[in-house]
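User: Show me a protein chain along with its predicted structure.
Assistant: Here is one chain, sequence first, then structure tokens.
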Amino acid sequence: MKLNKQAVTIYIVDDEFPIRDSLSMLIELAGFNVESYESAQVFLEHFKPEQPGCLVLDMRMPYMDGLELQTELAQRCSDLPIIFMSGHGDVPISAKAFRAGAVDFIEKPFDNQLLLERIHEVVDKVLLAWPAVLEKRQVLERYASLTCREKEVFLLIIHNYSSKHAAKSLNISNRTVDVHRASIMRKMQADSLNSLIIMAVAGGIL
């Protein structure tokens, strides 16, 4: 699925309306779709993880701050890239944000052109990585359709266990393993063990 920058949504989360308003106008004029939110909670209510995007996030906000929102997104297995903004930035806070996966940290007041450059850089990476992101989601959706026992067999066969060894490991019959293997191949839409391993790698399962 080929995307262009108009397909990427730039989310702005800042509790100050003048900042949200000016940033929205700036980023829209640069050709991006923009959604702005006054709090982390409201953003989470509307956020669609299947939508490619970039989050421009204020560090200090009431109730849930930027780092807490970053943590919440990580717990939801979101790969949304985050550019932090802060008028009170310091080394420990920025270091913590980067360790948790932030792509940039810009102190207020900042140069608008610098922010746009950073957004363009992030969007280019999002567009480049998007096919792999879609593939990973597809694999994980299929993997989620497996039963608990099928997941156990799945993990054994992608680690090159024979039906005999998998059966012994799980204390079930060879025939039962073969039945599970056939179901796994069907649900994962894999035509060979090699393709199943490739899926496991793409989905981060292996």
